[in-house]
Amino acid sequence: MLTKKPGCEHQFECEPNCMPAVRNSYHCDDCDVSWTDEWSCGCDDECPECGAAISPEESEELDACACEYL
């Protein structure tokens, strides 16, 4: 874990560490739609076509600190 950078705005004040920036890749089989989203974890997203909750097929860490991404 990376110690939180001064001025970090994506993590709670009481947390000592930064959160990573993650690019999640999704695919909805029902709609045959694929998309990506950047977040601080590998979390579910909503299909832009049908609104279904979709888990990431793949999560790639972009940086140890999400400050520049989120």
Summarize the structure.
This protein has 70 residues and is mainly beta.
Protein described:
The chain is mostly beta strands and 70 residues long. The protein has a domain at 21-68. Helix content is 0%, strand content 36%. It contains no helices and 5 strands. It has strands spanning 21-28, 33-39, 45-46, 53-54, 58-63. The chain has a 3-stranded antiparallel β-sheet, with no helix packed on it. A two-stranded antiparallel sheet has the order 3-4. The radius of gyration is 14 Å and the shape is elongated. The model has no long low-confidence stretch (mean pLDDT 87).
Tags for this entry?
single chain, 70 residues, mainly beta, three-stranded antiparallel sheet, 5 strands
Structural class: mainly beta
| Residues in β-strands, percent | 35-45%
- What is the distance, rounded to the nearest whole angstrom, between the alpha carbons of the first and last residues? 17 Å
- How many strands, what sense, and barrel or not for the largest sheet? 3 strands, antiparallel
Strand sequence of the main sheet, in spatial order? 2-1-5
- Individual helix count: 0
Number of strands: 5
Radius of gyration based on Cα positions: 14 Å
Shape verdict: elongated
